[in-house]
Write a structure and sequence with these properties.
mainly alpha
């Protein structure tokens, strides 16, 4: 099953979870706010997520590294935003999903963020970490020792 999920790009998985959450939000009683909705918290969280994701993406592009998780990796990036988190693009998407949950305050959107995190944390991150360790060996292990997966 893990390999099947790896075939899909994480932003598309996020959009699928978001679509399901939207349907549940607008068409079921689960659309009633379960937590206090906060447009400001959503705006700040979403803006932060977009900035983190964009910085990670920009560093990949600048260094000629493929963004697709299954593509071969030519270079280990450990500077910039990658000094703070090993997965800034994933963290950014997670924060954007959490922002939507904050904005609406309903369980379907919160569940979408949590489910996406689960797929990334338990499927994509281990897959990518194994690939990077095989490619870069001790350099990647040292990087893992210095920088946490998320924050």
């Amino acid at each position: 099953m893990n390999f099947e999920l790896i075939a899909y790009r994480p932003p598309r998985i996020a959009m699928a979870f978001l679509a399901v959450a939207a349907v549940l939000h607008w068409l079921t009683p689960l659309g009633e706010p379960a937590i206090f909705p906060s447009a400001w918290a959503g705006l700040v969280t979403g803006t932060t997520g977009m900035a983190i994701m964009t910085l990670g993406w920009w560093q990949f592009r600048r260094n000629g590294v493929a963004i697709c998780p299954t593509a071969p990796t030519a270079r280990l990036i450990t500077d910039g935003v990658y000094r703070l988190t090993r997965n800034p693009m994933y963290l950014g998407i997670l924060l954007m999903l959490a922002a939507i949950a904050c904005w609406f305050g309903t369980l379907p959107f919160a569940a979408a963020a949590m489910c996406w995190w689960g797929v990334i944390h338990f499927v994509f991150c281990p897959y990518e970490e194994q690939k990077l360790e095989q490619t870069f060996g001790a350099a990647y292990r040292q990087y893992m020792g210095r920088v946490r997966r998320w924050i």
